[in-house]
Amino acid sequence: MTQEKKVSFNWEKSNHVGYIEKEYENSYLVVVDDPSSDMKEKYTNRMIISKKECTLLNT
């Protein structure tokens, strides 16, 4: 079983936490742990976030 990598990122002036579902060259596909209602409606809990905007968290 692989270990999920947790990340923290800012979106619309709020801090969010999620785990990396897929890694791309310059970004991550992140599944957000506690999405806002706007995230649920527009992005279905998944967002592509620039690696520059993410901070890896220790799990």
In words, what does this structure look like?
This is DUF2187 domain-containing protein. It comes from Enterococcus larvae. The protein is 12% helix and 53% strand. The protein has 59 residues and is mainly β. Strands 4-3-2-1-5 form a five-stranded antiparallel β-sheet. The longest helix has 7 residues.
Give the amount of beta strand, in percent: over 45%
Number of DSSP helical runs:
1
**Succession of helices and strands:** EEEHEE
Largest sheet strand order: 4-3-2-1-5
Distance N to C terminus: 15 Å
Rg, alpha carbons: 11 Å
What is the helix content?
10-25%
**pLDDT averaged residue by residue:** 88
Structural class estimated from helices and strands: mainly beta
Unreliable spans are: none
Major beta sheet summary: 5 strands, antiparallel
Q: Give the number of DSSP strands.
A: 5
The outline comes out as globular
Organism: Enterococcus larvae
Protein name: DUF2187 domain-containing protein
In terms of topology, how is this protein built?
Blueprint: E1 6-11, E2 14-23, E3 27-32, H1 37-43, E4 46-50, E5 54-57
